[in-house]
# Entry
Amino acid sequence: MVFTSINFLIFFPLVVVLYYITPARYRWLTLLVASYFFYINIKPVFALLVAGVTVSTYFFARLIDNTSVESKKKRYMVINIILILLPLFFFKYFSVLNNSLVSILEENGLRWPLPEIQLILPIGISFYTFMAIGYTIDVYNEEIESEKNIGILALFVSFFPLILSGPIERAKNMLPQYHAQNPFNYELFVQGLKFILWGYFMKLVVADRVGIYINAVYENIPEHNGTSLLFASILYPFQVYADLGGYSLIAIGTANTLGMQVMQNFKRPFFATSMAELWRRWHISLITWLTDYVYTPLSFNFRRWKVWGIVTALIITFMLSGIWHGAALTFIIWGLMQGIFLSIEALTIKSKSGFEKKYNLTRKKWYIFAGCLLTFILFAASQIFGRAPNVSDALAVYSGIITSQGPLFIGQVSTFILSMASLALLMSKDFVDEYYPSRILLFGNEKKYVRVLSYSSVLILILLIGVFDGGQFIYFQF
Amino acid sequence: MEKSEVIIKLTGIFRTVFNNDTLVLSDELTANDVDKWDSLSHMILISEIEKGFSIQFKLKDLNKMRNVGDMINTILVKLSL
# Structure
């Protein structure tokens, strides 16, 4: 069951009602049952993996807590991380490794008896595995105590709003909330519904409609001129933002209606004036997870190398992030590009801030605009490797953009106009929220009729121009 | 070394790393309060503190530091070992 399915529109209100009529001390159990039902509805056998990750994590975290010998604690942590990473590696990389090995052997005249294997990736496996790893490391670092109730830990790993694509939450934020017996919070409930509404707008109206144009161009790269390739490449970061950002808002909003506070996943990323700032606003839950559990240990080990230690840690972290996105050279290059951009910023930050201070640039509108524009160009350029199916296609896009200008491909005129209009609406909202917060309020207006009019308009837009047979959420493949 | 001496020395290290001669440390100070104290500059700061006080942190020590007060206490513990 996914957020854009009819099943979910029936399931979700039912869970909300069941949740609030359950006595407060057993509400976690209602959520646990609902979460497993939600996940089993996708593919029953994959729920066994979720349960396996939970059981392993539960026992090893308890063992870590119950021993005072440091070497044993470390061993338990490492064993659990390896154990729960095995299914992720198996499903994500086995096919690629196996098929590469077969072709290498065949090139050298050796026959491999196994046929080609294409495994279906259990949806959400990266996200719940990352949450379980984070919990294990937090227990090892003594930041939290291990959870004694396996049911609560099972809920943390499988909580249905987050299991498919995050936000990748932390145990120290979620476990106390599952234990708490909070009364119904009207403000949080309403805020949740607003997030869900805007999340559906971002996904169904913006992401899926813009996606139609991008797919038309990227699926026929040789057929399109540089102008159209450039335009589709400019649009792609907006599609990913509307897709994963929209998904995240629906997830956060769903959790809010159940009285849970979940971390923000996007914070108006296209108003970042540097790549470092963009990565503090884009897929926040993944980047903070990587910072805490990958980048920090790496940079700590490399700290003697000063700034070069940071550069090395940054590049390794983003390369790993790239490999996580997919076992393909395109994603490795994508990760490497992020690492290089951030490293250049880290190496030049002192001279840059000195220059900005000298000419008092940081508050000048043109300077802020130039920073946003340059950051966007760098990000969009790297995202070509995120979207193109392989390196030669990505290079063909770059080459096309530079060499072959021509008339812009429009495709279906109505789709094109609606995509641009909905994207403009999304970016206008972000612009107002970024630079003029509380100046123009629609969903949060104190006048009831303005609020009702706003909700209704967005709902009508979703129903009228939403793409209901559109693709899956982009991040389900990761 | 007394806490006051640690604070004086630590202030000097903070001012050098963040290039800010007016920075004043307090127990409640966090990375959010100091311009340019981010995950990139944090490890340079840690490395300079280790050098300045001739101590060695463990990764666990870093994870437990919530503010400058925690940092000062950790340094004092390391110095007393």
